[in-house]
Design goal:
Blueprint: H1 3-19, E1 22-25, H2 30-43, E2 47-53, H3 59-72, E3 75-80, H4 87-91, H5 96-114, E4 118-120, H6 134-140, H7 146-149, H8 154-163, H9 189-203, E5 211-215, E6 218-222, H10 228-233, H11 235-243, E7 249-252
Parallel strand pairs: 1-2, 1-4, 2-3, 6-7
Antiparallel strand pairs: 5-6
Helix pairs in contact: 1-2, 5-6, 9-11
């Protein structure tokens, strides 16, 4: 690793050693996976990776969390969260993520208390500049962001993960399924299931990084600009995969993939 990255990793390890037992909110993405792996290296089985399972988590992601935990020997537990029972979450206003993270903290808090552990989240410096009200919910409940404290950007996380041999180093970002739904459109279990199935079908066509955005009977597909040709080349299969989930119109966004673009 580069000297600067070595220093950040050393700072992260020092922080985790100082915290002692930790409960890692483990989504299986590059950030939380890196944090879980380093925490395990520093504090061993006193690091407990916990994955929130709900309709907002893609089925493929739950399976990958289980696989990663097995491959790396993480102490891992899936727990069911109930954000869909919160009317404020289903309403889907600009604070939706706050209510989701509040539910997560309500579920993680008893686990952390029983283990006298600190809850840690894989938030990095780049995340602080986006609209992420869920971060406030986590901070309000005493969670810590060790990657931020150690100075890690998203690029740092990926570079350090690659150096450590973690297969998640280049894993595409996978936000919760509700992020595909424009603010003001009510979130439901059925809608999230449709989006999950549509995206899973498109991944089977070789599209690794993508979003299917929901606009009533229209689905807007986002992929990186380099993959636009791949979508067009498989136009009939792409249209069928999305129409099979009840959409009448299937559109391709020519601006390409933009994480969090519904936040604007």
């Amino acid at each position: 690793m580069q000297p600067d990255l070595d220093a950040k990793l050393a700072a992260l390890e020092t922080q985790l050693a100082g915290l002692g037992p930790v409960v890692v909110a483990f989504s299986g993405g590059a950030d939380s996976a890196f944090l879980a792996a380093v925490a395990q290296r520093v504090v061993g089985d006193r690091a407990h990776a916990v994955t929130a399972v709900s309709p907002s988590l893609a089925g493929d992601e739950e399976a990958d969390c289980r696989a990663i935990a097995h491959e790396w020997g993480l102490r891992w537990t899936p727990v069911v969260t109930h954000e869909m029972e919160r009317a404020a979450y289903r309403l889907n206003d600009t604070d939706r993520c706050y209510h989701c993270k509040a539910e997560l903290m309500d579920v993680l808090a008893p686990i952390a208390a029983a283990e006298q552990a600190t809850i840690v989240l894989g938030v990095n410096l780049d995340d602080l500049g986006d609209h992420r009200p869920g971060q406030k919910a986590a901070v309000d409940e005493g969670a810590r962001f060790p990657l931020v404290d150690a100075g890690f950007t998203k690029a740092d996380v990926r570079a350090a993960s690659r150096s450590l041999g973690l297969r998640t180093w280049d894993k595409p970002a996978m936000a919760c399924l509700a992020s595909r739904v424009p603010y003001g459109t009510e979130v439901s279990v059925g809608l999230l299931g449709r989006l999950d199935r549509a995206e899973a079908a498109l991944r089977r066509l070789g599209l690794r990084q993508l979003r299917v955005r929901h606009y009533g009977d229209t689905a807007r597909i986002e992929v990186p600009l380099d993959d636009l040709d791949l979508v067009v080349a498989q136009r009939e299969a792409v249209v069928k995969a999305v129409r099979d989930q009840g959409y009448r119109y299937v559109t391709l966004d020519l601006e390409g993939f933009r994480s969090g673009n519904l936040n604007g």
